[in-house]
Queue: 4 jobs
Job 1
Amino acid sequence: MTPYAFPMTATGLQRALAAQASAQKQQDLQRYFKTGPGQYGEGDCFIGVTVPQIRKIAVQYCALPFPELKKLIRSPIHEERSAALFILECQNKKATAGERGPILSFYLEHLQYVNNWDLVDLTCRDLLGRAIADGLQDSSILDQLAASDNLWERRIAIVSTWYFIRQGQLDHTLRIARTLLSDPEDLMHKAVGWMLREAWKKDPATIEQFLQTHYHHLPRTSLRYAIERMAEPTRQQYLKGTFW
């Protein structure tokens, strides 16, 4: 049964997702997203729908209004929250400047449901990062999120700066990366390193100076991610700390 067979409501989208669900994929996703006790995704619920399947269904429901999206983004089912965020991202791309403000407000009001790394990485660059660049939101929100006790809000802070990196602006990335150097979570070490790697592609000299300045405080995972695209001799220098 295709998504077209279901009504254009939150319930219709939920039924479309359920029609694609796989018990084997459910088990795989539960393991992949670390949903066990004490893991970062503890308690997250999957029904076993792949990202391409979610995206294909979400595209058909791109016109869903906020009241319907609210039902999805507040769902305990990961794929339903993911679909809501795909739709929000789709609407944001098509929106006029005046329409993007309410979309951003909806996103910020529901940040507590953007609670796994894939949901963060799907949305924050173009929803929050772009809004800051366009003056719809003050950049101080990045510092507020970076100081949060919530892992996912801290990840939003650093990954949102990807929008600025793509414009060749690195100040936000470097500032938030400095704030997060002592973060205890490995997922944050990876995110910081990832953004430093993206920034290095734009301005190698600036990022290499940052890495050297903060070398003794930079988590090893962040360093490995940051230097991944460097030439092998240079990469080895950073791994060994022999660039002085």
Job 2
Amino acid sequence: MKLSIERAALLHSLAHVQNVVEKRSTIPIISNVKLSAEGEALVMTATDMDLSIQAREPARVSTAGTTTVAAHTLYDITRKLPEGSELSMELVRPREDGGAVELKVAAGRSVFNLPCLPPDEFPAMEIEELDVRFEIPAVDLAKLIDKTRFAVSTEETRYYLNGIHMHAQAEGATSTLRGVATDGHRLARIEIALPAGAERMPAIIVPRKTVGEVRKLIEGLDGHLTIGVSAKRIQFLLERTVLVSRLIDGTFPDYERVIPTGNERIAILATEPFEKAVDRVATISTERARAVKLRFADDRVVISAVSTEAGRGIDELDAQFDGEALEIGFNARYMLDMLSEIDGDEVRLEMSNPAAPTLVRDTGDSSTLYVLMPMRV
């Protein structure tokens, strides 16, 4: 194998490829990236056995071939080389006695010899035609991810909450693609236009790591990408990159049951001042609880926090409030995560009592809703 490639092109794809590779793997071969020089391209493949990625970049190939090298090492070398440089890669045997094959990476006066592992030991990546296939605007997929992923659970024992639940939803003449995430303390739901061809999509749970990698891949992407779905796998196909992931094998809970209806105490607040006030007062909250109390009455809200170590903090804002006076507590971090995704100038809180779930709506985006469970403070 012998080729040359622009640093910028190699770095662009390696940045995504090396993210898939686990930093501490007990299987040496999957700590590596598979490099295949073929035609006029360098194809890079990586996997953690659940998530696989393949990226293709133009290269000047003198001799076709395939090998594997440590993914993070190759990425760090490429990242630290001067901008605008060109890399050459060549398989060599540094010793005449037939020593192990190495990949010689050179740019200018910099030369690195990296140990290789046999490419035939690398797990095969299957790119197949899945049951359902549709195109989706990249901006729609980015919005679906951004509005929900903060609520994805990180608790491994509740593995079925460790991703975004996606399914087609038909209500009357309107069909949408829903994204839902919850960790049991908060819930985020968004609806986007149902892409043509997605009507037969099964209800799926896309793992948290996959969600993060897809979001990075589509950052700044104009146009569409193609998604393929089956009961167990999902593929994301971009112009030069394919991401294939296993889906979470579990049943997402009936989230509709926790979305409250008929909450009669309504508060409307200016989003930015409210977010900043919660952030200020939360400075006093102990790190473990991070609790803030909201008291709604007389068209204002008093935000407060008390800590035996740090003292007390109080802030006050004007609010449109309809209903009997109410004191209710929330986890400040959960509230701030949610408020950071509110696009409208105002946020609407629909409350019932201090122990019942609060429904939160973005006045600037009717496609989203959020649910926050209160805390006792």
Job 3
Amino acid sequence: MDIKNICKGLRTGNQKLALQTASQKNIALNAVINSIEKNRQQILEANNKDVEAARAKGMSQALVERLALDDKKINGIIESIKIIIAQNDPVGEEIAGWKTPDGMTIRQVRVPLGIVAIIYESRPNVTADAFSLAYKSGNAILLRGSSSALTSNKALVSAIKEGLSSQEAQGFGVPEAIELAPCENHDEVEEILSAVGLIDVALPRGGAKLINMVVEKAKVPVIQTGAGVCHLYVDGTADLENACEIAYNAKTQRPGACNAIECILVNRKIINEFLPMLVEKLAGKVELRCDKESYEIMKKCEKPEYNKKIIPANEEDFGFEFLDFICAVKVVSDVEEAVDFINTHNTKHSECIVTNDRNNARIFQAKVDAACVYVNSSTRFTDGGEFGFGAELGISTQKLHARGPMGIKALTTTKYLIDGDGQIRR
């Protein structure tokens, strides 16, 4: 991969976008929507090849689900771009402004980050989401997906470039603002991460292994996005039926997503009532890896059809991102123990308490260290689309620059614009 030439083209795209108005960028994004619609069948056929190859290699069903596209997901991609078009352009927004005693005017305004590189796994919808967010915020983007989704990503990028180059874009499209790495070998990732002065920021999006590798090897700035070891704490005052529904949704709706729960903590006061309910709700579908106290209760509730879905947990099961129909279960004494356990074992992504005690809810939200902290709702809502951003570049689990679902504003920084009329410092 010729990273220098690729970034040279992307920088040209970034500079062209920097001069465009919101309406001009929106015209181009509308052309991209129509191109994706026009090429829908080709995109789905390309994706089907990736899915068939993944299954042949033994990829788990949860990960195949992340890889697969269908008409509903294509519709979701298009709807996400429409939402991004409808959002205010953050570029040029004046955050602060004042006049100095000697007459200079100082304005702090939002500007694009520049060239953004995203290194991601499996999900081809990220290709379209990342592009549209970057484009609307004036950034050029280098996409480095996984080999398992390469055929899908090529089809999507081809459709995007076709839209940007079409007459419908009215000359405002900037096809130089997007490039897809060839995905020929793993050396490409290190080239990207070592491209100091060429890449302005890199974002990993995928499992813990990918994220840790990027953070450890990067020489360019990195926004760390989220492996998701997410917890659900069922408090002693919780509505137990509600807690079961939230646990079921947060674990099973999409177990391969980073906002799915990986561990359920249960207050000791309610274990005899709640744990049998949890077995009834989950055990036929989810393997439950239980600490000693919960295992003694839950094993008694196991039915033959559960096919040994209730087993003792190992210590390494706590703090592990399963990304599958597997969940750890642990008993705790109170909200304070739950908070301590979560802060020791989580990845700062999304955490939830189910409770009818507002004081415990306040303690949990104040003390848990995570980007998103829920009371009485599923962690599955941690998503740019659900937050109204249209899409997201990832879920930032760090504290500097951006945290949580990263929408348009997360892809901007600021600069100070100073206007004077001859002032000099004395």
Job 4
Amino acid sequence: MATPESPYGTSAPVVAGGKPVRVHHLAAAKKDGTKLVMLTAYDAVTAQILDAAGTDLLLVGDSIGNVMLGHDSTLPVELDEMVVATRSVARATKRALVVADLPFGTYEAGPEQALASAVRLMKAGANAVKLEGGSPRAASVRVLTQAGIPVVGHLGFTPQSVNMLGGFRVQGRGEAADVLLADAQALAEAGAIALVLEMVPEPLAARVTESLTIPTIGIGAGARCDGQVLVWTDMAGMTDWSPRFAHQFGQIGEALRQAAVDYGAAVREESFPSEKHWFSS
């Protein structure tokens, strides 16, 4: 049930009854008009909570670099770090479809490198991998798909290309809209199972969504995508700042800070631990 101060209610997940979300469920959701719910996760504790909440897809994003590892971009993230995070999330997940990012430098050389990197993530427990870029990535998507590895594409603002894009800027304006649409179609034709659209104009996201048979998942791309994804720390209010396209559905950061303050006070005033917390013999 929605909280009194929240305008958001509840709705049924893509797959009810605790059954695992599979690739074919994504296509069925698009056909039925059921919105897909995706959140990032980087560890077992968070993944278990988000999975139990009915989240359809958990993205082990290379955003772990910004969110958890203290980097100012996703570029420094290593494949070994993604393997550890993917394994942690997969072990804790019973229902959601786990998608793992291929980090920068692990697939750009071509299909052979992409396949080797994707295999490592799949062995770690991923159900699919995600890569950034348009038509130049179609060959890699095709090879991975033929190898039995589901692929999610990512267009619009692609964080791994932040230096070429001139910073965190909306993509697909003007003549670039037709290029993005062509890229989306190329990825779909190559076998991608879904497509993330990040920071693209809402009309363009709607146009791409209508043109594809595979679902689109938006982040800063408006409401007409087939689903939405957010970084979980933005969604849960873990920090004072969050992107314009995010909504804080909780204030977990403040709750955690207050819990730490209360713990510290209890230790210093010697009210914790009390007799109920220790062993007498």
